[in-house]
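Box 3.1 A note on notation
Throughout this textbook, protein chains are presented in two layers. The first layer is the amino acid sequence; the second is a token string describing backbone geometry. Keep the layers aligned when reading.
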Amino acid sequence: MNQLIKIFGDKTEEAKTSVAADIALKMKRMEKLKKERANLEEHLRNIRSLVKSRTAPIRNEIVGAKENRLLILLKSVDSKGFTKWQREVMHAMINEEYNILRNISHTISPEVEEKYDQLQKKQFENLSDEEKETITRHMKKMFRDFSGKDEVIDFEFENFWDYDKFEQRMREEQFRQDAHAKDREQKLKVSNTDLDFQKIYKKLAKKVHPDIFRDEEERARKEEQMKTLTTAWESRDYYALLMFALEVDPEIFEEVQLAEANQKKLIDQMNDKISEMNYEISALKNNSEYSYYYRIIGLAKTEKTVEKKISAHELELRHIAETAKWELEQVSSMNKLKKILAKKYDQMMVEDELFGDFGGKIF
């Protein structure tokens, strides 16, 4: 903390000590959060590997039964012997089953994907021009709302049936928005850079620039330091700049001190970093890659507790597998399938009465 006090210029010793203590506490908090995030990520990777290896056979049973049920529906939807309403109900069931399958399995068999793809194309080809225009207009509006821009979005109706293309377009738009936001934030930071920080950067750059060193080993070390310094400066990461200065040349603050406004900028940035790190820890638990496994194991670490939780989950999956097999058997013949369609139709009619008719025609 004695080194930090040098940064704060003309403040009284008591005020300097107070600010330095505040920054020191925030530094400890950030270091703690950094370790917490690293430990959490390692924990999540470990439980994902463990749960996947233990439950793979049961999960494969579930996916297999779900895929076979979906294949029967896909093959039956255009078969003779079904009425119009039965086909419409089958279309709804197919979309429902496909979405469930995507949620429980990252990979769907090529046969299922191909047949589902063909059905989607056929469904959309059978729509009227008015229906296509309505859906296209709706999709364009959705992209406009999502991007916050008024320009006409290049959206071809034919792409709507392709889930992967649609998802990719949304990801690209999200990436574009994020990049634009970061660029705007960066320009604002650069325009608001104070001379205090600029002086610190220039002095550090002279100190670690690799061109002034002839020894190859030392030159390589300085190249790495210069990269770290450049990254901190270009992103206007004042905290990283401060930490670098304290590590490389703490005496720099004998010559350059931070004005009160810049001390506030530094503290505000540290508060922002702490909030961001807390958010990252929360987001990591809900990350699509880990959330399923975190829900099962949580933060349990003792072997006994982890084993208990995995065993409970295996039992849960076993029930799901039995249900999936039973559901498969219920569509194994035309007569059984028609009974299921009748039940599903009644259920859909009840839902329409409760929540209103959202679709009109069932695609």
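The CA atoms of residues 199 and 256 lie 7 Å apart. Residues 357-363 have pLDDT under 50 and may be disordered.
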